[in-house]
Each structure stands twice: as structure tokens, then as C-alpha cells.
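Checklist before submission:
- one chain only
- standard amino acids only
- sequence pasted in full

Submission:
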Amino acid sequence: MVMETTDRVIDGVRCAVFDSEPGGRAEAVVFVHGNPGPMDDWEVLAPAASAFARAIAMDLPGYGRADHPRDFDYTVPGYARYLGALLDRLGVRRAHLVLHDFGGGFGLWWGLHNPERFASVTLINTGALKGYRWHYLAKIWQTPILGELFQLTTTASMFRSALNRDNPKPMPDAFVERVMRYADWGHRRAVLALYRATRDPERYFGSLQPKLRELDRPACVVWGAEDKYLPARFAHQQLETFPRAEIHVLPGLGHWPFVDDPDAVQRIVIPFLQRQVSQ
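Returned file contents:
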């Protein structure tokens, strides 16, 4: 399903937003993508959530239809601030976060600094990653010159081959095409900036654990068992951060379980969200 979007400008940087109830309820399910995005990752879950809640998704700066500016703050706190300003603009006062990949850092950082608005969290192959070490692609992006050369020379066929090598199921052509459609140099530069700003994952992912545990928010953890980038051993580790979390490790699925088997992920996530909204 193609999600209809409108543009919003936050601090001079335009982003694209899917909002099922513009100007509607102050409680919303908020979907935050990771790398490489864009918001189309949520083309199944966001419309499904809109059947019972206000559902919001966005292309964050550097990704998808959003601006890809050179001078944006491409850090976890920078994205968290932008997300917060966007939610302010949309009038969201109570957020049920659905996060994937780097979106985990963005959303959890925002939630930690806005506990009165942070209602629940759904973590899809992401979370408070204590003891995490970067995967091989991240190390390439973090290396000066090598990262630039890699970004300059990556074609759609190379991107597809890399994904299919690392994923238990072939990635659909539509997934590759929607990422590459927006992969201009601004996007590729943003990826380099973000990964180089987070060379120490413990600072932005692992260190969140103690304070988030104090909040004890309802959580649903969904993880593809064959994830080569964020190993599934981190799924059960989320209980150290969210003691009441329900954990679902899905065999045969990879880093994008909502692409590998959208129905399986929807059967878990949507009932969890239905139990949380307006509670």
C-alpha cells in the first residue's frame, strides 16, 4: 500500500509525513524507520494501526522524500530532537513508538527525555543494545575515504546482492527500488555522517538501559532470528530494559521481518498496540 504523505518543515528542514488523522487525537502510534529507510517500511503496519488509532510515520532528514541537507545534525540526539519537534507540530502528546534499526536509538532517546509522553514501545530488530559491536557495513561507512568510495560506487544491483547475501530470504525488488530511488549523494552522505557519529554504540544504545528500566514501559520485541546486523541474542536482552516485555523471535526471518513475512509481524504487533492505546 502506498501511504499518502504531506510535507512538514521543522527547523528549516522538510520531511514527508503520513498521518492518518491530521489534527486528530493527541495519542498516536508513531512509526520510526532506521537505515536505509524510508517510511515505506511501514506500508503494512501503519495503515493497519490506523484502523483503531491515529498512525504517524515519516521520512526523517537524509532519507526518502525528506530533505537531505549537508548541515543537519546527523546524530542520535539530533534525530531525537527533530522527531520531538515534529510530534510537537503534529500535536502528539502521548506516543506509542514502533521502532526499527537506528529508529530504536532515535525513538528511545526521545522517550527517555520525554517520559510523560512515552506510552509504550514496539522494538523490531532494535533496542537498548548493551555490548553491541558494529557490523561490517557500518565499519566501512565509518572509515574515511573507504566509506566515500563505497557510497559513490554502490549501484542498485550491488545493493540488492549485499542484502540478499545477508538476508535469509531474497529482498523484493520493490524494497531495493524504493531505497535507491532516494539514494542521491545527500542521502549517502547522511548515512556516513550518522554512522561516524555513533562509532561508540554503547553511548547511544547500551547506556540507555538503566534509565529506561526505571520507566518500565510496556514493550513488544519482535526480532528476525537470522538478522546478520543485529543478532537475535539481543532480543531477550531487552528484558533487562523493559522487564514486562513480550519477546518474539521469528525463525527464518532477517533484519527486516516486516518485509520477509509482513503477516507474521502484523499478527504480533497490531494486537499489542490495540491493548496499549487509550490505556
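Reviewer check: The chain has a mean pLDDT of 95.
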